[in-house]
Every structure is written in structure tokens, then in C-alpha cells.
Amino acid sequence: MAGPKALVAGNWKMNGLTAELKEVRLLADMLKGVRLACDVMVCPPATLIRPVVQLLSNSRIKVGGQDCHAAAAGAFTGEISAEMLDDAGCTAVIVGHSERRTRYCETDAMVKDKAEAARRAGLTAIICIGETLEERESGRTLEVVSRQLAGSLPAGFASDDTVIAYEPVWAIGTGRTPTRDQVEEVHRHIRRDLIEKAGEEQGTGIRVLYGGSVKPENAAELLDADNVDGALVGGASLKAADFIGIIKAYA
Ligand code: PGA
Description:
- The protein is built from 10 helices and 8 strands.
- The chain is α/β, with parallel strands linked by helices.
- The structure holds 2-phosphoglycolic acid.
């Protein structure tokens, strides 16, 4: 069954100095003339958004932020609003990454507010959900994912402004990945939830990415799974050669 057009997004996290811009240049060069059946995005740290946008202005690669504040502006020292990301040239923003949920105590309600802010600013919200190892081992994966989804989705979400990234917390940065069957089970469940909430057309049109230790070696297997519409890639997105190796799963 043909699903929505896939998206491969790279989350650089807190990595990247000006010197690393050469990887972006390399990425753009390597993708020139390559026929791809997916969209490609990089989410650099805020300090590099503008130079990355500039470098990619003649390419098909989009740029996203890694987080945003719920408010449009105000006295929130250190924060960045969705409007600022839009102003800097981003078209999307990751919200609710598990590192933010666990280290910065972000709740579903906070993630929902951020996703709403993204919609307000005209950005696509890439909403991350996923279970911990303890939750998986106690058989609560589907329940956890459903709860996070229900709590994090903004009212009126639609396939053109919302992407879901299923990222099992135990697979992030660990080199461990779920089996294809496990991925398919969760993605099928997410799809069912999305259809229930947004109706058949919107629910089937929303991209559901897989994230967690995606590498060139396992990309084809993971990304070919049912209801997987691309990947959110951390570590392997930092080097152009590795990132391309994943993107090529769609070449
Ligand atoms: P990883 O990170 O690919 O390094 O496991 C994925 C993510 O956190 O989005």
C-alpha cells in the first residue's frame, strides 16, 4: 500500500560547530541529481540554522529546529519560539523528543502546547513518542504510545502540519533496535489511533517516522516496514556519508 511520501530527518542534537558545515555542503552535493522518493531534512542546533538554511537554499533539503517554546515571544531567557524558527528559515520543528521529556521534564501537555505553537507559526511539528525499556518489558508499549499521542497532538492536527516519530527510548543512541515485527506492531497501532482521531484520509496521510539507532546498515530493513514513512536519525545524521547511506533506502 502506498503511504505518504517518506521523510528522512537528521537530528544533530547539541552537536555542530561552524566547521561541521562542510558536512552539509557535502550532503547537498551528494544529493544533487539523485532521484529520491523521500523528503530530506536536517535539524541543526539553533546557532547553525541560518548558515545551514543559506547553504541549502538551492537544494531540496529542508531545515528544522529541535525544539521551541509555546509562546510566540516574551521574557523566556534562553528559549526560541516557533516564529523565530520560521523567521530563520525552518519549515519544521521537533517537539517532545525523549531527551527533552526525561531530562527537562516535558509533559504531554507541554509537548502539545509546543506542537500548537508550531502550527501557529506555520511549521510542521515532528512529535516524538516512545516507550522506555521498563515500559516495554512490562508489556505497556502500546498503552504508553497511545497515551503520549493523545496527550501531545494539538487540536485540528492534519497531515500537512504534523509528523509523528516513534522512537523507543531504549533504542536511542544505544545501537539497539526493535525487530521489524516490533516496529510494525507499534506503527500499526499509531496509525489506528491517528485514523480514529483524524479520520481515514488525514490519519493515513500523516507520516509516522521510526527513530532510534537508524544506520545505513539497518535502514533498508527498518524503513521498509509497514506504516513506516521515514526516519528520524540522530548520530548517523552527523556525517554526510552515513546520512546519505540511510536516505538511499529511498533512492
Ligand atoms: P540515534 O538518535 O539515531 O542516535 O539513536 C535518534 C534520535 O534521538 O532521534
